[in-house]
Automatic annotation (TrEMBL), chain A:
One of its GO terms (molecular function) is phosphatidylinositol-4,5-bisphosphate binding. GO terms for cellular component: cytosol; exocyst; nucleus; pollen tube. One of its GO terms (biological process) is regulation of pollen tube growth. It comes from Theobroma cacao (Cacao). Signal peptide: none annotated. Coiled coil: none annotated. Residues 1-91, 213-244, 478-503 are annotated as: Disordered. This is Exocyst subunit Exo70 family protein. Keywords: Exocytosis, Protein transport, Transport.
From TrEMBL, chain B:
Keywords: Membrane, Transmembrane, Transmembrane helix. This is Protein BYPASS-related. Transmembrane segments: none annotated. It is a single-pass membrane protein. It comes from Theobroma cacao. It comes from the Eukaryota.
């Protein structure tokens, strides 16, 4: 054993007595010379000699041959100065660098296998000196604050890390070889103390570097520091803030990795992990905060006005997406980079770090899901539902199985709750239709606000059609054993359309149900009009509005189907017919030939009566119906055209046939108030919503 | 409401509970029986928590295993309560006075309980932070023999532990600073912190949220039903409310939590209620303890944390004065403490994660039940009643 490591030990600092004991007098030479040669050349020369002399002997043992050969170059110049006697003065020339090389050799000697029965190992003299130098180094490093963080790493740091590495190794090896309570105890204790000091410093440095990512800060502020994402981070499209997450430069990242490596191999893994955990957790909180995501208690959410809560939702969605797609994957990469050789460590750190954040985000969804429901909330809820649904895979892929399972369950629970509440809200529309039982008819038979509201709501809802279909399919099934409440049989509700294949989804069923309810409600409202014709106009207006809305949106059209639309169109035609019958057939009755001819002769008083009543009736119709409202232009013109088509030819022919019977002049003037052209003009004034008196027009 | 006013239709219901068809006359009796049983179960469960039966392991009150039992008790009571109130019952029954007022009040308490659950979950996170720091100290001081380096290492971890524990002190203090030590988003604040200190985790539920205030708010309107109400469904609603408030109060007392000053204030449970005896006993015990510790400032009454604090403090003293190789007597004393600290860490390691999961379970249960009650209230046609 002694022979084995002897060359290194003796290389430059061996004490005389040791040398004498082991390898003979030739080695004494440099040692004795050393006091005199304070310059650099001589000791080196001496060393070379020494090595050369020893070499043949070492070749036999073979173990350290390479090191021996390399030694002269490594050794270079200084460092030989105080070899031999540690007490001798010219120590200035022996610096950490050279000492470190000696230690390196010493360490590798320690790691070479020892023969059985060999007792202990020799502690080289230079060690104490080396420790002094390391302590000095630490002292220089210690005030972390004075250093400019995040800049290029000073060369110094590399040598510092190397020193820490050696100290750790020394401590590990020596404390394994010697008991602390042996005579080497004080030395080992000293090394342990230095190691602790160095580690403590590394911990601070690790923290202060971690605490200072250059995240999303204005370029100018961080002059000099380059904003580098983690290697492999795709930074192409995203904005600056996103792409450089977590925002450590390559240099800093490299340094962090090296520190972590030293801390872990030195046995200070727990400290390193704890700093990482606490620091990054706070940074994630800050990052969310910067996104505008504010922590709200569930109680607060219940008390918030919807207008205020509504504003929080897009922020939440953004935060959730960012976490799932940018921050968490960045966080994971960061952990993987810094703890690159410890995959299980980076796994557990990452899970620990972000699990709570996910739960926190989900709590907001839970809070919103239990807030008092109202119809206007549906769409924001569906946005949240989609966010939870679409971002789950991204989250899922990041976590180790156990944690992924928990988060999957949590996310799914939150999503289900939002799904269930969305169904309730959508079904609440039924109630709001049912409860709309106002007794005041809309003036002029115009489109009822309920129709407008419902149709626009449904149209908007159908923009979420795929999601709503899914929501209805997945969440209306959940039956509560002890509850007689929803769900009900959605499909059974729309018997009329059951054969339409597309409508077999529960959502379509619910939509149909709502349309049916709306129909029934409007039907009842139409009865509020004393004038049956106006009731028909009301139904036509509302029916037309519904049909236009449905035709105007592919999504809702798809749900309602062509069958429904055809049926609706035919309903409309029926209302049209009934309107014509009610209003215009009565008028045409005045023009019927029946009773006008008695024995081939026109009965003049009857004819006069007919003209009189026609005039009065038309006048009345014009007066009333020009105040009626048909705002749909096409419907309006359809109505006018069809009225004209019925009335004008009949009137024209009646006029042609009987105008001559009346005496020209005063009589004609009195009874024939309208020319066919006038009729047409007046018909064109119908349904404009502004009552115009005919008399007024005539003047 | 006097007993004679008991709604007539109420008796006319046919209960399908437990698959039994109970005729008109039997129904009310059955119900009284159920209520009595519920009271008895609640009482028994809390008696077990206060003084466990001989064959059961004795858990120190407010220890992790004890808290887990407490949460179990809550879940059991809650399930039974729901069965009594909802199963086989016509919705119109619980949407009638006085339940139409009492149940929404209960649900409002439930919402506040959810926040407490979240606050406590965060608190468990900070307990785990303490655990990890203590583990560092344990592993350093477990070296035989202890060197100066390891002693210093332990001391550093223990100092961090103490400052992590004492955050509550500032938080609980009466002077409210705009910059709280535990709040986030204070970059500038870094400079105030001595290097080597952990920046504390933010365990906020929300800005200005206060656990103590929340608990207090839960006790608003919490009055025992009197007269005829006492024999009706108002009684289980009251019992469940008290159980909920007590459980949340105990959690807040045990686990570090945002803003707890004035927590010791008792909530009013009339002493003459037989089912509440054990609960009142527990409450007094915990309340007294709280008053003793509150002034000192502390991380909470959690048994394991208290132990950790005590051991941590004395080990800090040990490491402060330690110089290699150390005195045998002191070393032996420290070794015993280290062993105890290691045991405490082990119990935390074993219990904290399940505790946290259980708290989450309670959270989900409360949410689910609340929804069910709202559904039933809705059906009862009282959906328009203000719920807040």
């Amino acid at each position: 054993m002694e022979k084995n490591h002897q060359p290194e030990v003796s290389s430059s600092f061996k004490k005389r007595d040791e040398e004498e004991k082991s390898s003979g007098a030739d080695i004494v030479l440099p040692a004795t010379e050393s006091p005199e040669c304070s310059n650099e050349e001589k000791p080196v020369a001496a060393e070379v000699t020494e090595v050369e002399i020893e070499k043949p002997e070492e070749m036999k043992t073979g173990e350290t041959e390479i090191e021996l050969i390399e030694k002269p170059e490594e050794k270079e110049n200084e460092g030989g100065g105080e070899e031999g006697e540690a007490t001798l003065p010219p120590e200035i020339d022996y610096n950490l660098e050279t000492a470190s090389e000696d230690v390196e050799r010493f360490l590798s000697s320690l790691s070479t296998p020892k023969e059985e029965g060999e007792v202990g190992l020799e502690i080289p003299e230079f060690l104490e000196k080396y420790l002094d130098l390391v302590e000095e180094k630490i002292s220089k490093h210690e005030p972390v604050e004075t250093k400019v963080k995040g800049c290029l790493l000073p060369e110094d740091d590399a040598s510092f890390l190397k020193a820490v590495n050696q100290i750790s190794k020394l401590y590990k090896n020596l404390s394994a070889g010697f008991k602390l309570d042996s005579n080497k105890g004080p030395l080992i204790n000293r090394i342990g103390k230095i190691q602790q000091r160095a580690m403590s410093h590394l911990e601070d440095e690790f923290r202060s570097l971690l605490e200072d990512p250059k995240l999303g800060e204005p370029e100018g502020e961080q002059a000099g520091a380059d904003h580098c994402p983690l290697p492999g981070n795709d930074q192409s499209a995203e904005s600056n803030e996103e792409s450089n997450f977590p925002g450590y430069s390559h240099e800093v990242l490299g340094y962090l990795t090296k520190i972590a490596k030293e801390m872990i191999s030195g046995g200070y893994e727990s400290e390193c992990c704890e700093v990482f955990l606490m620091t990054r957790r706070n940074i994630i909180e800050e990052t969310l905060n910067k996104l505008g995501f504010e922590k709200l208690s569930i109680d607060e959410v219940q008390k918030m006005q919807w207008e205020a809560l509504e504003r929080e939702i897009p922020t939440w969605i953004k935060a959730f997406k960012q976490c799932a797609n940018v921050y968490f994957s960045g966080e994971r990469k960061l952990a993987e980079t810094i703890f690159s050789n410890h995959p299980s460590l980076s796994d557990s750190l990452f899970s620990n770090l972000t699990r709570g954040v996910v739960i926190q985000l989900l709590n907001f969804a839970e809070a919103v899901a239990i807030s008092k429901r109202s119809t206007e909330k549906l769409f924001k809820f569906l946005d949240m539902y989609e966010t939870l649904r679409d971002n789950l895979p991204a989250i899922d892929s990041l976590y180790p199985e156990e944690c992924a399972k928990e988060l999957r369950a949590e996310t799914t629970t939150a999503r289900c709750r939002i799904g269930e509440i969305s169904i309730c809200i959508f079904c609440d529309l039924e109630n709001s239709i049912k409860s709309d039982t106002g007794k005041t008819p809309v003036p002029g038979g115009a489109v009822h606000p309920l129709t407008r509201y419902t149709m626009n709501y449904l149209k908007y809802a159908c923009e979420y059609k795929a999601t709503l279909e899914q929501v209805f399919k997945e969440h209306s099934k959940i039956e509560r054993a002890d509850s007689t409440s929803r769900p009900r049989d959605y499909e059974g509700d729309s018997q009329n359309y059951k054969n339409d294949e597309k409508n077999h989804s529960p959502f379509a069923g619910q939509l149909m149900r709502i349309m049916d309810l709306l129909d029934a409600n409007l039907e009842a409202k139409s009865k509020l009009y004393k004038d049956v014709s106006l009731g028909s106009i009301f139904m036509m207006n509302n029916g037309r509005y519904m049909l236009q809305k449905i035709k105007g949106s592919a999504e809702i059209h798809e749900v309602m189907g062509d069958t429904w639309c055809r049926k609706r169109s035919s309903d409309l035609r029926n209302y049209h017919k009934s309107y014509q019958r009610e209003t215009w057939m009565k008028l045409l009755g005045c023009l019927s030939l029946e009773g006008l001819n008695v024995n081939g002769k026109v009965v003049k008083p009857v004819l006069k009566e007919r003209f009189k009543s026609f005039n009065a009736m038309f006048d009345e119709i014009h007066k009333t119906q020009s105040s009626w409202v048909v705002s749909d232009e096409q419907l309006q013109s359809e109505l006018r055209v069809s009225i004209s088509a019925v009335v004008i030819p009949a009137y024209r022919s009646f006029l042609g046939r009987f105008a001559g019977v009346l005496d020209p002049g005063r009589q004609t003037e009195k009874y024939i108030k309208f020319q066919p052209e006038d009729i047409e003009t007046y018909i064109d004034e119908l349904f404009d919503g502004n009552p115009v008196s005919m008399a007024k027009r005539k003047t | 409401m006097p007993a004679t006013e008991y709604p007539g239709s109420f008796l006319g219901r046919i209960s399908i509970r437990r698959n039994q068809v109970i005729a008109m006359d039997g129904n009310h009796e059955q119900e009284l029986e159920d209520l009595e049983l519920f009271q008895k179960h609640v009482s028994d469960r809390f008696t077990e928590l206060l003084s466990p039966p001989d064959d059961a392991p004795v858990e120190a009150p407010l220890s992790i295993p004890w808290l887990r039992k407490l949460l179990d008790v809550f879940l059991c009571c809650e399930a039974e309560f729901k069965a009594i109130l909802l199963m086989g019952r016509d919705p119109s029954q619980i949407s009638k006075p006085p339940l139409d007022r009492l149940i929404p009040e209960l649900l409002d308490r439930a919402v506040k309980a959810l926040d407490v659950c979240n606050a406590v979950t965060n608190g468990v996170d900070s307990v785990r932070h303490c655990q990890r720091l203590a583990e560092i100290a344990v592993s350093a001081l477990n070296q035989k023999p202890i060197g100066d380096g390891q002693a210093r290492r332990a001391r550093k971890a223990l100092n961090s532990l103490m400052s992590a524990m004492n955050l509550d002190e500032k938080e609980g203090g009466s002077t409210k600073t705009t910059e709280r030590s535990w709040s986030f988003g204070r970059r500038g604040g870094n400079k105030d912190r001595a290097p080597g200190q952990f920046r504390p985790l933010s365990w906020q539920v929300a800005t200005n949220w206060s656990a103590a205030k929340q608990i207090q708010a839960m006790t608003t309107n919490l009055v025992a039903p009197r007269g005829g109400e006492a024999s009706g469904l108002a009684s289980p609603v009251y019992i469940m409310s008290v159980v909920m408030v007590f459980v949340m109060w105990a959690l807040v007392a045990a686990i570090p939590c945002q803003e707890r000053s004035g927590l010791a204030t008792h909530f009013p449970v009339p002493k003459q209620l037989s089912w509440a005896h054990s609960m009142i006993g527990l409450q007094e015990k915990i309340g007294d303890e709280w008053k003793k510790k509150e002034k000192k400032g502390m991380a909470g009454l959690l048994e394991e944390m208290q132990k950790m604090e005590k051991l941590g403090q004395s080990l800090i003293e040990f490491t402060d004065s330690f110089q290699f190789p150390g005195e045998t007597e002191k070393l032996e004393e420290a070794a015993a403490q280290v062993a105890e600290l290691a045991e405490t860490c082990r119990r935390m390691e074993e219990g904290l994660v399940p505790l946290q999961m259980q708290i989450r379970e309670v959270f989900h249960r409360i949410v689910r039940s609340r929804t069910e009650f709202l559904d039933v209230l809705d059906q009862g046609g009282k959906s328009s009643a203000p719920l807040v």
